[in-house]
Amino acid sequence: MVDFTLHTPETAPDGAAERLTAAEKKLGFVPSLWAIQAEAPALLEGYQTLAGIFDKTSFTATERQTVMFTANFLNECTFCMAAHTGTAKSQGVPDEVIEALRNDTPLPDAKLEALRNFTRAVVTKRGWVENAEVEAFLAAGYGRQQVLEVILGVGLKVLSNYTNHIADTPLNEPFQKFAWTKPAARAAE
């Protein structure tokens, strides 16, 4: 396996060092995902910028996390499942929603479940979602804008999930208490 550098503000290439410094000041540490993405400053900038844009969508924090957790779960991204657990908790996402997303059990809200189902279809069908699936999403109370915003969230998760898979990103200490394995994998152990 190819080893990727966990960059620090001191070792990061131009264009990434200032982003890692800002993360360290804001969070008290540099998330390992960003430390690895720093090797390609354009990727780090793209990921952070797209994350900021996704935060500006019409979705609530709970809805945004539903989209991201669903993609993380389906892509089996252990780093992102752990990191998003901490982030979701800090954003006030209800614990029962977080646990349902981590365990792929029914969500306590039918509209959120429709969002998860539509996101699941987008991810698993690589965008080739059937018209009936779009109609079901719309019938749950979402609009065409949200159809497209789900695509934005899924695109964001491709950047992080695929980076983590290729680089085998280690969990930062603050995320370790939220470590995750896919429920089916747990049953096989």
How would you describe the overall organization of this protein?
With 189 residues, this protein is mainly α. It has two domains: 7-56, Single alpha-helices involved in coiled-coils or other helix-helix interfaces (Up-down Bundle), CATH 1.20.5; 59-182, AhpD-like, CATH 1.20.1290.10. 66% of the residues lie in helices and 0% in strands. It has eleven helices and no strands. It has helices at residues 17-27, 32-37, 41-54, 61-74, 78-90, 95-103, 110-124, 131-139, 144-167, 173-176, 183-188.
Nearest-integer average pLDDT: 96
CATH superfamily placement of the largest domain? AhpD-like
Integer tally of domains: 2
Shape: globular
Q: Unreliable segments (pLDDT under 50, ≥5 consecutive)? A: none
User: What Rg do the Cα atoms give?
Assistant: 17 Å
Which class do the helix and strand fractions yield?
mainly alpha
| DSSP strand content | under 5%
Q: Largest sheet, described in full?
A: none
In sequence order, what are the helices and strands, one letter per element?
Answer: HHHHHHHHHHH
CATH C-level of the largest domain? Mainly Alpha
- Approximately how much helix is present in the residues? 55-70%
Q: Determine the CATH topology of the largest domain.
A: AhpD-like
Between the first and last Cα atoms, what is the distance in angstroms? 24 Å
Task: Give the second-level CATH assignment, the architecture of the largest domain.
Answer: Up-down Bundle
